[in-house]
Amino acid sequence: MLKLFLQAGMDRRRLWAWALAPPLVLYVGHNWDMAAAVFAIGAMLLAREGRLVPAAAAAGLGTAAKLFPVLALPLIGLSALFGDDRPWAQRLLRAAALSAAAIGAWALVNLPVALFAFENWSEFYRFSQGRSGTAAATWDVLANMGWWFTLIEERNRYAAIAFVIGFVLILGFGWRKHRTHLWVLFTPVLAWFMLTNKVYSPQFDLWLYPLLLMTAPRLWPVALFVLGDVAAYFAEFWWFAGMEHGWPATTPLHIAIAASFRAAAMLWIIGECVVRDPPAWLVRRA
Fold first, then answer.
1. Smallest Cα–Cα separation from 154: which of 136, 142, 165, 139?
2. Residue of 61, 50, 43 lying closest to 102 (CA atoms)
3. Which of 211, 251, 255, 269 could form an SS bridge with 187, CB 3.0 to 4.6 Å?
């Protein structure tokens, strides 16, 4: 990841923010999320260079590792269709090529496993549909505080509706400023997905944090996000400790306070990423 950041021309402050990042220290060993994050960052940098077909392939490989890079693909596709003034035939051909590249990259990894071990391969999707959520996710906070209780099926439905509405709003408000580089909206789209999803596992911040360092117009809102994120991490796990009569222990109220602080920072960052210009080095083409 650091090599990608260096190749991208990221400034020294952001490099240090990555090297000293609490999310990196706390979560990097939780899962294989970093592999998908590397592909997501690679897709962004390829898109910066105007290489949208390889960018889509990288996002497809990232989706094979972890599902979240799929959120970049509609933005890369729209960049191919509306990012320049080429003849429409060329735009459509390019969009078709990047769609094929993304699907082909994903299938290259997934199809052999799906064909020979479908039950094991599909377990993730079935588990994701059936699980209720996590304590610091929006829907659990609302339920545990007694504000709005939802069943699993309702959470699946409401989360999908809320995400689609937010995606359309982010795209609509960001269109004029970011039309030539729509892929930078991947950051606010991902942040909104994490807020509306019924699950917010701690290592999910490995998805968002590198993108924040790449695309956030200013760093101090990112610092507020990190503070809220660390607070939510310890509040959630200390709540588990309290359930086993351990110490230190927290309550759902502590989780709600920390998660609300983190959510406020994320909403602030979403707004900034939509209405402000990204770092200048990010949108220049090599």
1. 139
2. 61
3. 211
